[in-house]
Amino acid sequence: MVQQLTSGERQNALVILLCIFVAGLAMAAAGGSDPLGMHGVIVMLFGAGLGALVMRSYYDRQPDPDRLSHYYDDPIKVGIALTLAWAVFGMFMGVWTAAQLAWPDLAFDAGWSTFGRLRPTHTTGVIFGFGGNALIATSFHVVQRTSRARLAGQVSPWFVLLGFNLFCVLAVTGYFMGVTQSKEYAEAEWYADLWLVVVWVTYFVLFLRTIARRKEPHIYVANWYYMAFIVVVAILHIVNNLALPISLGQAKSYTIWAGVQDSMVQWWYGHNAVAFFLTAGFLAMLYYYLPVRAQRPIFSYRLSILSFWGITFFYMWAGSHHLHYTALPHWVQNLGMTFSVMLLVPSWASAGNALLTLNGAWQKVRDDATLRFIFVAAVFYGLSTFEGSFMAIRPVNALSHYTDWTVGHVHAGALGWVAFITFGSIYTLVPSLWKRERMYSPALVEVHFWLAVAGTLIYVFSMWNSGILQGLMWRTYTQEGTLAYSFLDSLVAMYPYYIARAFGGLLFLLGAIVAAYNIWMTVRAVPVAAARQADVPDTGLAPGAAATPAE
Amino acid sequence: MAELFHRKLERTAIGFVVAIIAAASVGGIVEIAPLFTIHETVEDAPDMRVYTPLELAGRNIYIREGCYACHSQMIRTLRDEVERYGPYSLAVESKYDRPMLWGSKRTGPDLARVGGKYSDFWHVAHLTNPRDVVPESNMPAYRFLARTALETDDLQRHLQAQRALGVPYTDEMIANAAADAFGQAAPDSPFAAGVTERYGEKTQVSAFDGVATQLTEMDALVAYLQVLGRLTDAPYSNTAAPEQAPDTTN
């Protein structure tokens, strides 16, 4: 890590880490016994720990002056490791919370371990920890290869990656302590949110400067999606998290949005976190790793344009479908429904583009589990976007809202689409990044694939069943015109499905553990392949290397 | 032609980013900005009152424990919901809610009108161990609330922050925040009178967790649960629902 930095860059890194340490000290002093004080200590440890790491190699010899003619892959490698660590953590929390719904005593009579506090550790752990790290790591990889240029910074990629993980740690440890804004998928409190803004602006500048260095006249489709992901998430994050802390020494804040306006801002954020965090960024992965793995060009450039702008424009209108039949004015609900249905066009344009790219290479899909991950991801992307548009229709939503059907839908997307495309991308990326011939064990990739497929199907089917059953029980009337079931009747009917769901999630978690082991062993035990050495950027200096296509 | 234009656009990073921002901004602006300008968005309810300091503290415990993950506070305009839970929720009922807690999932029932539906005693027993009261329940037990003293030192700051954002707390309310929190859970104490004086006669003053001498987080949470749906009578006069307002003297 540090060996790649010049002494000037090592100094810069130390100055930044010192500032972080001092900020942590200030938080600890101002916070005292408030959770903010505890978070100050965590920030101090972060600054001091990384500072010690830099100090240890501070006087090591200077990096090879030739380093700038190579891609900057160290942050990507660490990013992959963090992705896998968060995957195991986040999915474990998911299995635990799922089990609590079936066996509530698994909270062990403590505050920190109750369902309400653990649930955001699962959602943040998988969305931001697992998904976010995968997005940052792959974006660093894809932008360099498709631009044939090295990242435009030596310290800033580390700042972005590790700073983002500091945000995730502050968020998750906060939930255990009861620090939450209670805005779904934006639970972290004001100071963590401010920190994320700093990290994200750095990310944006780094990404844009790297694009500006490109040796290709056109910006590749994958980078459109990464740019949309970075820019729009910044807008969403800032607007939704505007809040007034009760004091600078306390974690608690009050959002500036209230009541009905808050509900709209929250779901404008919430739905577009799905759109621009969980869709745009992962479509970027699809548009790069699918053609690389299948060794075929993307089927249609025009479809790519259509789906990109369709998604960017339509998604932002769709958030109000989370608020059908509520106190939100009707006209907003109807706009949300209309655009949600129209959204199916660009969504299926993407899914279709992916599947048509594979058309003609089905034998590869059959034989190669990695490509099969990407294939299943595209299928689930198509299925869950169809389901999403369907559930956004008011009368359907009347049944599905507030039920497990929503949870099933989200997981069809999160497991079937997001996690599958991520693992497919990682299995493609890891051997190339570490310049290995292949993965340590193709058989374990196969095992992971089937565990993940089985887990997803069990999960989604149990939630479809429980959700629709729940929705129907709530609205069933007797012959006499009274409600047929008490709420409790509907809860009792849920138990078998909650157990099945926890089991499905467990299979998926086991798959992720298998993946982490396989990747670890690939790095440790698989010999370096000479054929991978040609993977260098176009510097204008090495004419031989310049002609090498990306991957 | 469109493709030709796009081929130009994708050659410039800044231009592309500007185009993304332009395309992505429209939806949010059209859907959110009018919610502040169209008057009918939030109904008028002159009797709508603010949360007492104890209720606000209870609300913050509700937020801290993530209750919103399983309980909605939004009765939709559907027949079965109105019959099960009471008149559908109005926007005005959450106009002081920062953030709103409408929720998105009902693992447990909706709580928008749970105030006054059960006794304090029932709530305490239920929160202590839900399965003592409802054997089939899968709700976590919150025993620790009863053994955790409520933090009241910073209640003034909470009310001040709320006022800075537009919630009409008076100077008197802010100055007496801690005393009112204690008084609302200690009906026989000299502090009790101030609560009804400042927040209205209908405000429930009782030893929520059964112990009037010590203020716990259980007191605060039960006080909050008991006020849900009772900040205004507007839903009962505005809708076709036949129900009467629940007896708020309790």
Characterise the protein shown here.
The complex is a heterodimer of chains A (551) and B (250). Chain A folds into two domains: 58 residues; 442 residues, Up-down Bundle (Cytochrome C Oxidase, Chain A). In chain A, 72% of the residues lie in helices and 1% in strands. Chain A has 18 helices and two strands. Chain B has 250 residues and is mainly alpha-helical. Chain B is globular and about 80 Å long. The N and C termini of chain B lie far apart (72 Å). The model of chain B has no long low-confidence stretch (mean pLDDT 93). At the A-B interface, helix 3, helix 4, helix 6, helix 7 and strand 2 of A face helix 1, helix 2, helix 4, helix 5 and helix 8 of B.
Short description:
Chain A is an all-alpha fold and 551 residues long. Chain A is 72% helix and 1% strand.
Provide key terms for this protein.
heterodimer; A: mainly alpha; Cytochrome C Oxidase, Chain A; 2 domains; globular; B: 250 residues; mainly alpha
Strand and helix map with partners:
The complex is a heterodimer of chains A (551) and B (250).
Chain A lengths: L6 H25 L3 H22 L17 H29 L12 H33 L8 H22 L12 H23 L8 H20 L2 E3 L7 E3 L3 H36 L6 H14 L15 H13 L1 H15 L3 H6 L1 H23 L2 H7 L3 H30 L8 H34 L11 H39 L17 H4 L5
Antiparallel strand pairs in A: 1-2
Chain B lengths: L1 H8 L3 H20 L1 H4 L15 H12 L14 H7 L34 H9 L1 H4 L21 H10 L6 H5 L1 H8 L7 H8 L17 H11 L6 H5 L12
Query: Which H/E pattern describes the elements of chain B?
Result: HHHHHHHHHHHHH
Q: Could you name the CATH class of the largest domain in chain A?
A: Mainly Alpha
| Chain pair forming the biggest interface | A-B, 100 and 90 residues
Distance between the termini of chain B: 72 Å
Structural class of chain A: mainly alpha
Order of helices and strands of chain A: HHHHHHHEEHHHHHHHHHHH
CATH topology of the largest domain in chain A: Cytochrome C Oxidase, Chain A
Structural class of chain B: mainly alpha
Order of strands in the sheet with most strands of chain A: 1-2
| DSSP, total strands of chain A | 2
